[in-house]
Amino acid sequence: MTDDSKYTRQTVTHVHTWVPDKLFSVRVTRDDAYAFQPGQFARVGLPGAEDPEGPPTLWRAYSMVSAPRQPWLEFYSIVVPEGLFSPRMARLRPGDALYVEKAPYGFLTLERFAPGGDLWLLASGTGLSAYLSILRDPAVWRAYRRIILVHGVRTAAELAYREEIEGWRNDPSLAELFSAEPGKLTYLPIATREALPGMPQARLTTLIADGGLERLAGLPLDPEQAKIMLCGNPDMLADARKLLGERGFKPGRRGIPGNLAVENYW
Fold first, then answer.
1. Which of 55, 56, 61, 255 is most buried when burial is the number of CB atoms within 10 A of its CB?
2. 135 plus 245 within the same structural domain
3. Cα torsion for 107, 34, 27, 3, to the nearest 10°?
């Protein structure tokens, strides 16, 4: 590969299946020169099916699940049954190649907000990815008073990374922050097709509209104090953005920090 190539060849080291034939994560090696901010995404590539040993010709965007300080890259994906890319990515095994463009992309980063107040991270499905990278960065725990992570799915089986999230209180790298502020993180796993203990069976947009999220978190969605990130399917984003806009939430512009950041994960 020449030095002027726009991508690097990385090697798959681990594949985790969350829901067979539906949800999976892939971990690959990371080029030493690849730098990104938590919340950004990569363009990853595979060769065409007609030439599996050839150069990458199919490219898709995936947010990094891994933190910038970790020596690998990890991506979380849904399998689109008729898709050209995700079914093949799901079949990758350790030792296989996955190509990564040298430049990261995206603006779903904490730079969009002024520090302080409460950080709300609202995701549907695999939109959770960017938030995992953000929450693996100790800086976010110092920047906000409270952090509310909301993950909307259909069934409990789709709550990927749930065990890890719930175990962060025992993470040595975060122990000091948690011991000082034991209630800093609120994790709200919400399913639409299955009742979870202590959680309503509802869409995220319904819970925004009827005040359910605020009751669950014990915090108001106050545009003076709350900063909100939205990541997920376009329908959820459009409806949530409208509801939050009516309450005074809006993206930043012309260098002025806002209190709403949105990214399509589709």
1. 56
2. yes
3. 130
